[in-house]
């Protein structure tokens, strides 16, 4: 539950903005503008983050180096392309709470998920089951089902879905642990979205990982809705692996590269199978071309191909903002502004509105999922016409995300006023 004490009214929202130590970062982003010239209230950073103003300059730098240096840009560009992914590692590792050696920016999320399951889902005739959420994001389900089939097993038997109790929306931690314990040595992998896309529930990764390891299973997490949003603390969670995208809370642009975490205990494990590529090969002998595969120690050893520099340049621009803001400052505002939005919504006293995201701040990030009972998409369409960019999920949920880097308290106040009018 929130320990914050808030007040009503626009003037109070404006006072929160005036005293907000993060307020200057709002101006570091481009904000969509309506036809009437007014700025949209942008609450959809959990789907696509806004563009940092530094992106254009970063990409232009690489375009200029490409035009003047050609292939020599790999070594002589202002930011040489050969090691470019290394320029992102330290900042990304801070965001996800890992050691730099455990993190690499590469590929896209679903590709990385498949690569990780090649290494960490190794089913046998007796240990072949995977746990996922019943309402997992579809791409996770497709990936997991296809991996099970690839190994010759039946998803109907091997895919174990975690469902909330009757009449509840969110999963209980103890229920997850009980399923893991009951499956015992038939369980091969726990693969959860660490922050559920629909409810916004943030799972106890350390507790889940510990339980998985106790029965001899691996534990991995899809952190697409967690990276840049919640304190992942991946290294200390003990998770075997994690994957994430960078275009939501990390603001790297549509379809941009994802990230991958491999715990350091697996850094040099030659017994792990993997799909190999030349960019994961020993940097000292990479251009020997004819050498047997010699993987780089750590997460870098799972790389396949040389990376797309223009996409990485956009990521670098966003990571620069995160570095300046500081993760502790970002999380502090995230807790406060999300609690403020919750306070205003609950203050509407509407029986047909329910927040299904957990009330405990330790179990959520910068997202509230608002269930509008007995409603259809019309209410969402109406608030969109009023200048709110949010997200609708069938059958009756509006997902809103007051991202602390660029959403103001007055934005939140204005959104709730619009919502109040349109559900009246």
What layout of secondary structure does this protein have?
Elements: H1 10-18, E1 41-42, H2 55-69, H3 73-76, H4 86-96, E2 103-106, H5 109-120, E3 129-133, H6 138-150, H7 155-158, E4 159-162, H8 173-183, E5 187-193, H9 205-214, E6 218-222, H10 234-237, E7 241-244, E8 258-262, H11 309-325, H12 327-346, E9 353-355, E10 368-372, H13 377-385, E11 388-389, E12 391-393, E13 397-400, H14 409-422
Parallel strand pairs: 1-11, 3-4, 3-5, 5-6, 6-7
Antiparallel strand pairs: 2-8, 7-8, 9-10, 10-13, 12-13
Helix pairs in contact: 1-14, 2-11, 4-11, 5-6, 8-9, 12-14
What does this structure look like?
By secondary structure, this protein is α/β, with parallel strands linked by helices. Helix content is 36%, strand content 12%. It has two domains: 10-30 and 328-422, Alpha-Beta Complex (Aspartate Aminotransferase, domain 1), CATH 3.90.1150; 60-322, Aspartate Aminotransferase, domain 2. It has helices spanning 10-18, 55-69, 73-76, 86-96, 109-120, 138-150, 155-158, 173-183, 205-214, 234-237, 309-325, 327-346, 377-385, 409-422; strands spanning 41-42, 103-106, 129-133, 159-162, 187-193, 218-222, 241-244, 258-262, 353-355, 368-372, 388-389, 391-393, 397-400.
Order of helices and strands: HEHHHEHEHHEHEHEHEEHHEEHEEEH
Q: What is the CATH architecture term of the largest domain? A: 3-Layer(aba) Sandwich
- Biggest β-sheet description: 7 strands, mixed
Kindly report the name of the CATH homologous superfamily of the largest domain: Type I PLP-dependent aspartate aminotransferase-like (Major domain)
Instruction: Report the total helices.
Output: 14
Which shape, going by the Cα principal axes?
globular
Number of discrete domains:
2
The overall strand count is: 13
- Output mean pLDDT: 96
User: How would you write the strand order of the largest sheet?
Assistant: 2-8-7-6-5-3-4
Task: Give the proportion of residues in helices.
Answer: 25-40%
In terms of DSSP E residues, the strand content is: 5-15%
Give the low-confidence spans: none
The CATH topology of the largest domain turns out to be Aspartate Aminotransferase, domain 2
CATH level 1 name of the largest domain: Alpha Beta
Span between termini: 28 Å
Structural class: alpha/beta
The rounded Rg comes to 22 Å
